[in-house]
């Protein structure tokens, strides 16, 4: 793996850690969950053959620190962080952007707020549950997760959350990391420290976000909505598919499930390159 150039960017209320590889037009990678920039390690080198690839830890995650550790998190603020990265690394030029999971929600807001800065966005399984007809049920899920976190702790809250995301409400252990290669498994273990922040701050802030569907429809030629081919029926898949239908757009299927980026990195990277070549 190529050693990236490491940098830090001061933004309002936080300092962002970022990594850059390759040369060419900018490709900004926005991670979801607690993985941070390392979530893209399996695809970054391959993409760097064509692009200047930049990935970063979202504010409050990994090596990106908050000035106020207890600050509430907002999608618009995270999208503004992405904009600051674009201003730093591709000033005045539109860039290609990839967002996964919660990072895809931030990327959708970036597209609607600053379309002139985004040449094309691939948004993989953004859990924009507010677009769904049963959105009220998912608001109740988030409330249950928060109450469980407050009264019983992280592990029970994660179990409630995983059950709510699943196809059938199975309350067993989450299966997101099944089949990970050894390097990715080691990284996943290191990210568990970010789970309290993710569950307590990111989940409520992001799953209450309602995208501007009319604005996205007007920008749909710049947007590729994607899902994992093994994610059918799961909540993030349902939300992304419903949004694609509302926009009159095709849904691009990537290998694996919600974490296909880490379970199938080679195939994921190949499809990303193809998505950016689509007319």
UniProtKB/TrEMBL annotation:
A biological process term (GO) from this entry: glycerolipid catabolic process
Q: Which domain of life is it from?
A: Bacteria
Against InterPro entries, the record matches this protein to: AB_hydrolase, AB_hydrolase_1, AB_hydrolase_fold
Residues in the signal sequence: none
Q: Membrane-spanning residues where?
A: none
Keywords assigned by UniProt, alphabetized:
Hydrolase
Name under which the protein is recorded: Alpha/beta hydrolase
Look up and give the organism this protein is from. Streptomyces solincola
């Amino acid at each position: 793996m190529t050693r990236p150039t490491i940098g830090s960017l001061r933004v309002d209320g936080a300092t962002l850690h970022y990594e850059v590889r390759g040369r060419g037009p900018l490709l900004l990678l926005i991670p979801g969950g607690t993985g941070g920039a390392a979530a893209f390690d399996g695809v970054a080198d391959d993409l760097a053959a064509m692009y200047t690839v930049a990935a970063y830890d979202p504010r409050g995650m990994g090596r990106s620190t908050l000035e106020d550790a207890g600050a509430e998190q907002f999608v618009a603020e995270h999208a503004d962080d992405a904009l600051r990265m674009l201003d730093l690394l591709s000033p005045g030029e539109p860039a290609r952007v990839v967002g996964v999971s919660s990072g895809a929600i931030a990327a959708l807001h970036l597209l609607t707020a600053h379309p002139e800065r985004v040449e094309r966005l691939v948004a993989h399984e953004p859990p924009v549950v507010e677009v769904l007809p049963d959105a009220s049920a998912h608001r109740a899920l988030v409330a249950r997760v928060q109450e469980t976190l407050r009264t019983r702790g992280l592990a029970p809250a994660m179990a409630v959350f995983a059950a709510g995301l699943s196809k059938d409400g199975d309350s067993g252990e989450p299966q997101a990391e099944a089949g990970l290669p050894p390097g990715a498994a080691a990284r996943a273990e290191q990210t568990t420290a970010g789970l309290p922040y993710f569950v307590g701050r990111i989940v409520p802030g992001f799953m209450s976000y309602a995208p501007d569907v009319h604005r996205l429809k007007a920008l749909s030629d710049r947007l590729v909505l994607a899902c994992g081919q093994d994610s059918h029926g799961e909540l993030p898949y349902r939300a992304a598919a419903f949004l694609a239908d509302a926009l009159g757009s095709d849904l691009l299927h990537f290998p694996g499930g919600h974490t296909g980026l880490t379970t199938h990195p080679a195939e994921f990277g190949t499809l990303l390159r193809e998505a950016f070549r689509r007319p």
